[in-house]
């Protein structure tokens, strides 16, 4: 018997759970023992398929039979390797129980999901360990953003130090004032009193000047600090967003929109605060501590020793506090990113949410996520409200020691004078204050380092340009050859298998097959959204990876099944692929796409402002604008990805007419579910389960009576039934 311990219950709550493999069955339950629990299980001899179903942040061990799935065990990503190994062992035991040879399948690429240094699981979608990253190197890299603005950085530091110096004049002059009063009272002569008045006026004048200087200095410092901070965040956000634009689709498949928004906006804002406030404060506090300690030792080294006793304790306590608060800060960020991801998922899909009346459920998910953020925030707050009062208590104890020892020396006529004691007491506060501030700055450093890790993780992800060739021919002819092409989205997700296909320049190829068979994947390889896993994809006889990526995509146009339009005018959307197009070019492209008529019927015609994703237009209208966009781009290779699948018959006719003009003299790959749209294709390619099953012209495939012919008959029968049903529905509606 073999057993595996899990860290999640089946409902997703944290807790101990178990899965055991016996000679006959696999059993699982939530809790430390099966007593009182509801066990789940599956027989090894049953015809079940065993696999691990991965989710975001956790996974399931699943037994599947006849399309039904039994979830046996749930676990976090930390145990993913353990349960994938368990799944393989169970599959072997099940095969043995059925007297079969286990299906080993294709060799799986193993990705290390744990940090090799500390053994912790990597965060989902990340290959870096937040606990073992070199924070000093991260912060040193972060400080390089200050380099282009060196003189402003120096100015900010200088003005800040000047403020600190002006602030120290108060306690220093306070001691001098006590000395002046003592001397005047001791002498008791009019001349001594007059001299004391003159000294008092001088001290007041210095304090007034210092206050005026500080006010003016704060105005200049505030502006320079704001300018520096906003400039840095502008540079950083631009750099991160620009780099995001150059990343491959595979990166976006692993990241959630809300998480990326948090990194581009929230994390960079946190880094701005650190660079413009944390760094100057740290340098100023260190300089203040060192300078004041030297002054205190000069006044009385024994008293300085007593007053500084709490300082090392404060530093050690701060170090322990930061070590404990670090994972709390990361937990807060992770939960905030999850809340942002919920918003990023539901707001764009609000139509679906409302159509399925899921407002309450989505609000509930957000409420739960928000509660988790609150819990993490309060965990941090509990640590902070305990730690910072402790610092204050230590400061108070140090102050009491100074008053006790210093007052005793003054009262007994020791070497310390009353003015020196007053000056010492004023200055010692200038040490404790920076020490307390340093503890808070250290927290900023920890948060900034964590935020910087996430930003630099994006920046260090290799973009598509890094995997691109340099070849730019004078012109693209448009011939394509798939030479034994295999493609996998992941180690176990083989989407295309041994694709062999020749497409001649100017030829129109129709791709048909069931949903999920690999049609769109094949088209995405041409655009190099992904690269082949095995084999070669040749463009005009040369490996497509050798071409300059930007040049390649400028010569390929695509019309998607769900056209995406940006917030802006219709003219700007049509000219998206050719921003320098003239108004005449835009209108001509719209006419070719059968879009000019409805555009001119709009109040502002081509200057009509579209809502997000083209809100305000019908699906067919958006599709025709998408076709106009491809027409204006004038590509040598055109990909039509089910361009008419979601429109009515009349609109389909308009789109078909537009596409027939668009594909002239271009190499065209047309993906379609409606087989009638591919009658005029030169060659039709049928793809099933990632493989090419049939190739040939429309008439030849019908005569062959294979997969294509069966699909054709099914669609024809469905169309005939629809014609029979529609009249009866019309009659019933009229009677009502």
Fold topology:
Blueprint: E1 2-8, E2 14-21, E3 25-30, E4 40-43, E5 49-54, E6 58-65, E7 68-76, H1 80-97, H2 135-143, H3 150-187, H4 190-245, H5 249-254, H6 257-299, H7 301-307, H8 310-346, H9 350-355, H10 359-411, H11 418-459, E8 480-488, E9 494-503, E10 508-512, H12 519-526, E11 534-539, E12 542-543, H13 549-554, E13 556-559, E14 568-569, H14 570-574, H15 583-592, H16 596-601, E15 609-610, H17 619-633, E16 637-641, H18 649-662, E17 667-671, E18 683-688, E19 691-696, H19 698-704, H20 707-735
Parallel strand pairs: 10-17, 10-18, 13-16, 16-17
Antiparallel strand pairs: 1-2, 2-3, 3-4, 5-6, 6-7, 8-9, 8-11, 11-12, 14-15, 18-19
Helix pairs in contact: 2-11, 3-4, 3-6, 3-11, 4-6, 6-7, 6-8, 6-11, 7-10, 8-10, 8-11, 10-11, 15-17, 17-18, 19-20
**Topology-level CATH name of the largest domain:** ABC transporter transmembrane region fold
DSSP E strands, number: 19
Largest sheet data: 6 strands, mixed
Note the overall shape.
elongated
β-sheet strand percentage: 5-15%
Task: Determine the CATH superfamily of the largest domain.
Answer: ABC transporter type 1, transmembrane domain
**Helix share bin:** 55-70%
Number of helices: 20
The class by helix and strand makeup works out as alpha+beta
CATH architecture of the largest domain: Up-down Bundle
- Major sheet strand order: 13-16-17-10-18-19
State mean pLDDT (0 to 100 scale).
75
How many structural domains does the protein architecture include?
3
- Under the CATH scheme, which class of the largest domain? Mainly Alpha
C-alpha Rg (nearest Å): 36 Å
The parts where pLDDT drops under 50 for at least 5 residues are 101-110, 728-736
Distance between the termini: 68 Å
């Amino acid at each position: 018997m073999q057993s595996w311990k899990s860290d999640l219950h089946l409902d997703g709550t944290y807790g101990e759970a178990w899965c055991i493999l016996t000679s006959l069955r696999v059993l699982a339950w939530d809790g430390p023992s099966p007593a009182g629990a509801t066990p789940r299980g599956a027989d090894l001899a049953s015809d079940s398929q065993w696999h691990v179903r991965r989710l975001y942040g956790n996974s399931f061990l699943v037994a599947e039979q006849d399309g039904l799935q039994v979830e046996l065990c749930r676990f976090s990503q930390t145990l993913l390797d353990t349960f994938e190994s368990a799944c393989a062992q169970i599959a072997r035991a099940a095969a043995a129980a059925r007297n079969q040879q286990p299906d080993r399948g294709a060799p799986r690429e193993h990705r290390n999901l744990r940090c090799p240094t500390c053994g912790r699981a990597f965060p989902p979608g990340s290959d870096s360990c937040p606990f073992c990253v070199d924070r000093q190197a991260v912060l040193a890299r972060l400080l390089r953003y200050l380099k282009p603005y060196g003189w402003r950085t120096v100015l900010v530091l200088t003005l800040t130090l000047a403020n600190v110096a002006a602030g120290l004049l108060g306690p220093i002059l306070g001691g001098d004032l006590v000395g002046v009063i003592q001397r005047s009272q001791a002498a008791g002569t009019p001349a001594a009193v007059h001299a004391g008045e003159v000294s008092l006026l001088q001290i007041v004048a210095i304090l007034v000047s210092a206050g005026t200087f500080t006010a003016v200095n704060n105005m200049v410092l505030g502006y320079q600090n704001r300018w520096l901070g906003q400039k840095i965040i502008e540079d950083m956000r631009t750099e991160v967003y620009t780099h995001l634009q150059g990343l491959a689709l595979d990166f976006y498949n692993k990241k959630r929109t809300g998480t990326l928004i948090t990194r581009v906006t929230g994390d960079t804002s946190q880094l701005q605060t650190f660079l413009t406030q944390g760094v100057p404060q740290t340098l100023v506090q260190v300089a203040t501590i060192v300078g004041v300690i030297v002054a205190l030792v000069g006044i009385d080294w024994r008293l300085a020793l007593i007053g500084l006793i709490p300082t090392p304790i404060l530093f050690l306590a701060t170090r322990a506090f930061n070590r404990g608060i670090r994972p709390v800060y990361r937990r807060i960020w992770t939960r905030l990113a999850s809340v942002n991801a919920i918003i990023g998922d539901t707001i764009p899909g609000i139509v679906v949410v409302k159509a399925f009346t899921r407002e309450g459920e989505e609000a509930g998910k957000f409420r739960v996520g928000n509660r988790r953020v609150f819990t993490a925030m309060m965990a941090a707050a509990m640590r902070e409200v305990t730690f910072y009062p402790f610092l204050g208590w230590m400061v108070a104890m140090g102050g009491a020691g100074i008053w006790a020892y210093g007052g005793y020396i003054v009262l007994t006529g020791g070497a310390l004078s009353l003015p020196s004691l007053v000056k010492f007491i004023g200055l010692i506060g200038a040490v404790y204050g920076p020490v307390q501030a340093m503890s808070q700055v250290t927290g900023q450093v920890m948060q900034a380092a964590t935020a910087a890790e996430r930003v630099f993780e994006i920046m260090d992800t290799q973009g598509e340009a890094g995997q691109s060739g340099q070849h730019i021919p004078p012109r693209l002819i448009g011939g394509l050859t798939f030479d034994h092409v295999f493609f996998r989205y992941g180690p176990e997700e083989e989407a295309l298998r041994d694709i062999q296909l020749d497409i001649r320049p100017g030829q129109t190829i129709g791709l048909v097959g069931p949903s999920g068979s690999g049609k769109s994947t094949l088209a995405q390889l041409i655009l190099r959204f992904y690269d082949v896993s095995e084999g070669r994809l040749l463009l005009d006889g040369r490996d497509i990876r050798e071409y300059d990526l930007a040049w390649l995509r400028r010569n390929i146009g695509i019309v998607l099944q769900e056209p995406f339009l940006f917030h802006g005018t219709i003219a700007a959307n049509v000219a998206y692929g050719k921003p320098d197009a003239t108004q005449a070019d835009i209108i001509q492209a719209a006419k070719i796409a059968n879009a000019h008529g409805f555009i001119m019927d709009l109040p502002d015609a081509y200057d009509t402002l579209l809502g997000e994703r083209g809100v305000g237009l019908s699906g067919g209208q958006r599709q025709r604008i998408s076709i106009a966009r491809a027409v204006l781009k004038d590509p040598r290779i055109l990909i039509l990805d089910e361009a008419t699948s979601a429109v009515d018959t009349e609109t389909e006719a308009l789109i078909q007419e537009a596409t027939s003009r668009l594909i002239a003299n271009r190499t065209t790959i047309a993906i379609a579910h409606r087989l009638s749209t591919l009658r005029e294709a030169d060659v039709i390619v049928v793809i099933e389960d990632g493989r090419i099953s049939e190739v040939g012209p429309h008439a030849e495939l019908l005569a062959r009576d294979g997969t294509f012919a069966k699909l054709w008959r099914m669609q024809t029968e469905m169309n005939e039934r629809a014609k029979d049903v529609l009249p009866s529905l019309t009659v019933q509606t009229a009677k009502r």
